[in-house]
Amino acid sequence: MEQAIESVLFSEEQLSQITGRLAEAINAAYAGRTVVVVGVLKGSFIFLADLFRRLTMPCELDFMAASSYGNQTTSTGFLNITKDLTADIAGKDVLLVEDIVDTGNTLSYIKEYLLTKGPESVRICTLFDKPSRRKKSITVEYVGAEIEDLFIVGYGLDFAEHYRNLPYVGILKPEIYQS
Ligand code: 5GP
Ligand code: MG
């Protein structure tokens, strides 16, 4: 195991099972429709790649990125869109794909923004959810796994831009945060 990881929360195999279950539910819900899948960068990119290849309906792919204004540690709910859609989503079914929903600020902001573009529908799929941390109430249609109030890394999720390349999801050793 990577030196910085205290414990593994989700193995590669567990992540694959979770992604498979999510894909099944999404395939059933959107059968016969065309979906614009929108990944929220950067954390979702590995999960999205695994989920996307399991989708069986006609799919378009796009990305968005947003960052908090100012101090990253205080979640104000005001975000800056740093990468906008290129697809026209008017009249289309949109599936937003995120790595983790924490306070809910990011996804509620992005969803409100997408709704101004006149889509037919906007649903949310997240790999992980930390419901105990929620500040903005937001409907998340597809949740891979709920977790405690822990900071996790790997499988796309970072700490200071590192550890995204771990193939599993784990918890960092406390000394990594403190150094
Ligand atoms: P929210 O706006 O819901 O508070 O925050 C969502 C974003 O915070 C996620 O997309 C993710 O980038 C980051 N985040 C929240 N919890 C974690 C975590 O446990 N690990 C990592 N790596 N990022 C997290
Ligand atoms: Mg994210």
Inertia-based shape: globular
DSSP helix count? 4
Distance N to C terminus:
20 Å
Rg over CA atoms, rounded to whole Å, is 16 Å
Helix content: 10-25%
Order of helices and strands: EHEHEEEHEEEEH
The biggest sheet amounts to:
6 strands, mixed
In short:
This protein is α/β, with parallel strands linked by helices and 179 residues long. The chain has helices at 12-29, 45-52, 105-115, 174-178, and strands spanning 5-10, 35-40, 59-68, 79-83, 93-101, 121-129, 142-146, 152-153, 169-172.
Give the helix/strand layout:
Blueprint: E1 5-10, H1 12-29, E2 35-40, H2 45-52, E3 59-68, E4 79-83, E5 93-101, H3 105-115, E6 121-129, E7 142-146, E8 152-153, E9 169-172, H4 174-178
Parallel strand pairs: 2-3, 2-5, 5-6, 6-7
Antiparallel strand pairs: 1-9, 3-4, 8-9
Describe the structure.
- There is one protein chain.
- The chain has four helices and nine strands.
- It is of the alpha/beta class and 179 residues long.
- The chain has one domain: Rossmann fold.
- The strands form two sheets. Strands 4-3-2-5-6-7 form a six-stranded mixed sheet, sandwiched between helices. The chain has a three-stranded antiparallel sheet with strand order 1-9-8.
- Helix 1 packs across helix 2.
- Bound molecules: guanosine-5'-monophosphate and magnesium ion.
- Guanosine-5'-monophosphate binds next to strand 5, helix 3 and strand 8.
- The site of magnesium ion has 4 residues, from strand 5.
